[in-house]
């Protein structure tokens, strides 16, 4: 494996010059920079991610890795993260892995070359990333919502089991007893937790827990369409739907409209997340408010605290979701 010493020898420059070119830590003339970069490409040299994570100073820069998703929830969280970073005079570098392990390694390498002071991680889709990639990075790290691989990192998330309970109980309190749920991927902890909350509310009220009314789908629009279409094909159809995300609920709205049915007259619906679009649907969507601003604020504050005190005890911060009642049930 080539080293910086090999590059310096072949480029005819000092080791410190190679370091400055790689790290962009000091001005190097264009002629020498191009010469060094040419050798780097010829040798296919890749800086050690572990070495890059050894911090010697703070750059007032935070890196944020987000996996691909069309769920507006994640875009809204990122917007809040940017705002809180600015309030603390930190620059945020946002990268999207597009659910690809090569992109993860590439973007992580770029963040470390920028010498970010810490990492925020937010996973939207199930991944097959190696646990070694992030385990070798000795940077302060905070997970927002969830990350599929176990990490030694602070986690800021919401009480998703309670949220699932509140969503289902609110339908029961409104008089509905035949309630179905369309879940996201149950490999995701918060999907499994919301399903546990749904079952908790159903069994607490001694209602029927119908396996046909538990439909596993995906946390996006098409997942809602497919899940609702499956429920509409049943001989015994539910009268209310708990959609585990607002994006699922939007798909549910579409499938109900395609079937010539009305919300809430024929089928009631409640979503989850309280994305900005929810209030503009027809009828406006009742939903569980996931505290996106507080998720972002706590994540940024937690990361800054860990940057200044890397050895502090790892914390899990659990936030409380709330019902936003509109017109869909």
From TrEMBL:
Matching SUPFAM superfamilies: lambda repressor-like DNA-binding domains, Periplasmic binding protein-like I
Pfam families: LacI, Peripla_BP_3
Keyword terms: DNA-binding, Transcription, Transcription regulation
Annotated GO MF terms: DNA-binding transcription factor activity; transcription cis-regulatory region binding
Span of domain HTH lacI-type: 2-56
Highest taxon above the source species: Bacteria
Protein's name according to its UniProt entry: LacI family transcriptional regulator
Organism for this UniProt entry: Nicoletella semolina
